Amino acid sequence: MNWNYEERRIFGTDEKGELMCETTFVLKKNGELNIDHTYVNPILRGQGVAGKMMVVVAEHLREKGLKASATCSYANIWLRRHEELYSDILSQGTDDQGAACKIDAKH
User: What is the mean pLDDT of each run of 10 residues along the chain (107 residues)?
Assistant: First the structure.
């Protein structure tokens, strides 16, 4: 997987440049990030790609010194399950945040 980092997006492509997975972020008023969307290409679903992507996302946030919460249901659950490993990147009140993943027509 080739990982690509943009200001509000981390995504993986294959050797042909096709989108394989993606996480998007929204900047909150307090300067923290909200993970609002995750996507895995249907050909890779069920193979643990979403979890691997979230590790890449979490490590990137850690490296940049950023904090995040998630309204994307998958990302929210993943952050809660890995709270001990990534407590330094979690926004205050992550446990109380409801999940409402953005869904758009491209996926």
Answer: 95 96 95 96 95 97 95 95 95 58 49
Helix (H, G, I), strand (E, B) or coil at 78: helix
Asked if CATH classification 3.40.50.1260 holds for the domain at 2-96, the reply, yes or no, is no
For the stretch 45-68, what's the b/e string if a residue is b when 16 or more beta carbons lie within 10 angstroms of its beta carbon? eeeebbeebbebbbeebeeeebbb
pTM attached to this predicted model: 0.84
DSSP state letter for 25: E
For the chain, give every domain's residue range.
Answer: 2-96
